[in-house]
Amino acid sequence: MTSKESILAAIKNNKPEASSLPDLLSFPEEDHLIERYEKGLTGNGGKLKVVDTLAEVEAFVKENYSNDQLIASLVDEVKGNVDVHKISDPHDLEHVELAILKGALGVSENGAIWMPEKNIVHRVLPFIAQHLIIVIHEETLLTNMHQAYEKVQVAADGYGVFIAGPSKTADIEQSLVIGAHGPRSLTVFLLKKQG
């Protein structure tokens, strides 16, 4: 018997018994999801505005952005001046000042928002705009990422991304820089449940 054969035989003879897999972890639902979501989002450098209607989002845009800035809105009720659907080359989005998008769900534990491809049209849009507004509905808030992954259907959408704040880095001289590689700001408008 060669040394290789003796080693493999020893391993085979000393193989431990199979053990069953542990039960899947479950986490309790939590209360105060909006407050927890705000804590997670602000910890990531974002801002939360709780609103009753999309008219409040439109008013915010009119108050903070001028008509000569390029605004790409994929929220029907909020007007923009860039029609993203007519753009075939994503490079043409490089001068977009503000992108206004719909989020599919929000995660309270870390402030993340799931953005399926159908909600962003061009994958680059949430990363190339200088500023980002994402609208989510209160009923889409989840407690944690475990719940989010149960709901995310990547195969159905083909692409999606979790966004959890503006772009940031702290690897240069241990100093936090916001907007280093993408949007300089993220404002999330959370639409309260009606009724």
UniProtKB/TrEMBL annotation:
It comes from the Bacteria. Pfam families: LUD_dom. Residues 95-191 form the LUD domain. InterPro entries: FTHF_cligase-like_sf, LUD_dom, NagB/RpiA_transferase-like. SUPFAM superfamilies: NagB/RpiA/CoA transferase-like. This is LUD domain-containing protein.
